[in-house]
Amino acid sequence: MTDWTVQTAAELGRAIAAGKVDPVDLTEAFLDKIKDHPLSDRIYARTTPDRARAEALAAAARARSGQRRSPLDGVPVSWKDLFDSAGVATEAGSALLRDRVPETDAPVLRTATALGLVCLGKTHMSELAFSGLGLNPVTATPPCINDADAVPGGSSSGAAASVAFGLAAAGIGSDTGGSVRIPAAWNDLVGLKTTAGRIPLTGTVPLAAKFDTVGPLCRTVEDAALLLAALEGGRAIDTRAPASLEGRRFANLLTVVQDDIRPEPAAAHAAALNRLRAAGASVADIEVPEITGPMGDSGVLYTTEAWGTWGETIAAQPDLMFAPIRERFEGGKVVSGADYVAAWRRLDRVRAAWAAATAGFDAVLCPTAPNLPPKVDRLMTENDYYVTENLLTLRNTRVGNLMGLAAITLPTGTPSCGLQLLGRPMGEEPLLRLALSVEAALSA
What we know:
Layout: H1 9-17, H2 23-36, H3 40-43, E1 44-47, H4 49-65, E2 76-80, H5 107-114, E3 118-123, H6 157-164, E4 171-174, H7 181-186, E5 190-193, E6 214-218, H8 221-232, E7 249-253, H9 263-278, E8 282-286, H10 292-316, H11 323-330, H12 337-358, E9 363-367, H13 376-381, H14 383-402, E10 407-411, E11 418-422, H15 428-443
Parallel strand pairs: 2-3, 2-4, 7-8, 7-9
Antiparallel strand pairs: 1-3, 4-6, 5-6, 5-10, 9-11, 10-11
Helix pairs in contact: 2-4, 5-8, 8-15, 10-11, 10-12
């Protein structure tokens, strides 16, 4: 018997359309696997079986009558526990929000539901989304598919684990500094960071709203394209035939992102570039020294907004938080308004310099993460190690957020090593079309 829980979301959608899979049976298969899986409590904060079954019944009726609403109508997915869901707790991985129950769905969840996605439940995450590691001793630390003793990446940690362990066809997460791309890379998935402002954030628990974005974690670029369309109620790109890479021009970014890189990601990155060259693409090394300033300013930009959003709540009950994450928030309270404004002015100038330096390329490439998933025990016992690994983990992905870009990570074939493609602001469609071709080259 075919195991539906390891198929791509697109494959499941096509099987539903062809009458080969009933959405009700499909949803029950996922719910049964979640119920029986020994690690599911570390992946799902809570499941929504009644909602899932009702949505699956409606999807099945539409399939029978030929009125499916999207290519993914009837496909079960998970949602990071910062998307409001009516009548179900949304706690953003934090004891500060324990028993917070919204009355309505977030608009993005409502849109996806209207297009037929089936909601399996809410996945665990880093506290208030402020860590790239995925370590959360307050609620749960999800597992990493490649290392039982390591963290899975964050903050969309449970979203990645739900897909990697076959407990959802796809996961919906958020990305402020790398929170979709890091767990996707460390669990050998595709992760799409959308441009800030493209998908509405209303009804999502914020971290730093000027950088917060919504994006899918899934098995293929085709899935990412279909999920983007479902999340915003649009039309997906044509994913049927990846174009040739002949004549495509890539920039291999050297500035900052390849400093102190560990051997495995370095080797995986070099091998990926060789495959792209073999497929006919040109790859040129580039330096963009201007980005070093914003990278240094990122603490000012992120922590100031995060503390401005959460400072009063944290200060009222500081002991409810995991200390390293609380201390990261607290770093924002010492930044002056003048320093914050000046950092944004510098960032705007550097974004213009980035656009000029990369204008001649189809995409900019770099390793998604310069390190492998760290061990849980060491992170829990060595605070300095926690701080340095967290900052290193998010360093490369943060370029995409700071520059305001669409970005995607693809598996390289080396466990927990991803290839990141940086596109242009609001350039998700051309980036996805290019990523289809890169995916084909990497798997050749």
